[in-house]
Amino acid sequence: MRHVLACAFYCVMGIVFNPSVRAGAATPLIAAADWNAYKQKFLDPSGRIVDDGNGNISHSEGQGYGLLLAYLAENRSDFELIWSFTRTELLLRNDHLAVWKWDPAASPHVTDVNNAADGDILIAYALARAGKEWGEPDLVDSATEIVKAISANVVYQHEGRRLILPGASGFSAKDREDGPVINISYWIFEAFPVFAELDPQTGWDGIARDGLNLVALSLIGPKRLPPDWLSLKADSKPAKGFPPEFGYNALRVPLYLLRSGVTDPGLLDPFAEMNAAGAVDITDVETGEGRQALTDPGYRIITALAACATKGTPVPAALKSFAPTLYYPSTLHLLGLAYIAERQGGCR
Questions:
Q1: How many C-beta atoms surround the C-beta of residue 312 within 10 A?
Q2: Is 61 a catalytic residue?
């Protein structure tokens, strides 16, 4: 299966960093009205993306998502506003990675200087794509600096695999009894061919291949779903100290696979068949018991896209319109709509 997955990934992913393959190089993949609705609710005038479902904090993930969405909406002024906040308020570490959390209620606002690898990946990816398409070499230079820092600080060798640790500290075999611990949703596959151009020495193609195999390895339990946090110490199993559940992190795995061009049913079927009503179930991966059904359109579009890609089931028309709800599902909703737009209305 490894060979098949690698081909599925690279046959499509090899074109991602070429702006000419977009649906019109300068055509927004997110409608202006949708972006305006999103930014009116979640983009603070300072340039921070507000996580209104999490105490109104901001974090590197949100800033990365904000940059990517602004780029996909072709809104350069909003992109620069978000980048300005990110650059001045989060890129405070001495290793060129971002601190993960910024709390408006705390003084100082940064209370935890550890990074979150998914936030760093999203920031670097958005900077690289925008810098290349808009002819801004400074953005590409900043992206390259971050990508090399990711390589130096969170790429981790374990039993012949290249892992992406969730943060620079706290997740390796030296840091945890059950380490290394990974979060498979931190593999943002569409970014890796871009990173391979910026940082050819690291071997991002191998990291991508190992990530696809880790997705397959993480599909455990009666429902074949990945836990948010996975220990790789001896075998793949839920990490200690975290709920053994397919939750808010892992639910975005199929979206990342699809956006990178992976439509392999062996990876996507568990997500396409989650809930007869089309919801995303927070699920105990050990028992298969559903704990909570998430019915927000931003979650439901993920299962709909997985079903469309593997079974040809049309995405319901109601999910193709956008109205912001909470930060996280609204963000995923726009990424799903951009995926549909890039394929000119199709889901494959």
A1: 9
A2: yes
Closest CA to 152 of 115, 178, 110, 112: 115
Q: Which of 34, 78, 89, 118 is catalytic?
A: 118
List pLDDT tens digits, range 26-77: 689 999 999 999 999 999 999 999 999 999 999 999 999 999 999 999 999 9
Helices (H) and strands (E) in the chain, counts: 12, 10
Task: Answer left, alpha or beta for residue 82, where phi above 0 means left and psi between -120 and 50 means alpha.
Answer: alpha
Active site residue 44: no
Q: Which two tokens stand for residue 332?
A: 């995923």
What integer pLDDT is reported at residue 348 of this predicted model? 62
Of 34, 51, 61, 133, the active-site residue reads: 61
CB 215 within 8 A of CB 9: no
- How many angstroms separate the CA atoms of 259 and 339, rounded? 6
The CA radius of gyration of the chain, in Å to the nearest whole number, is: 19
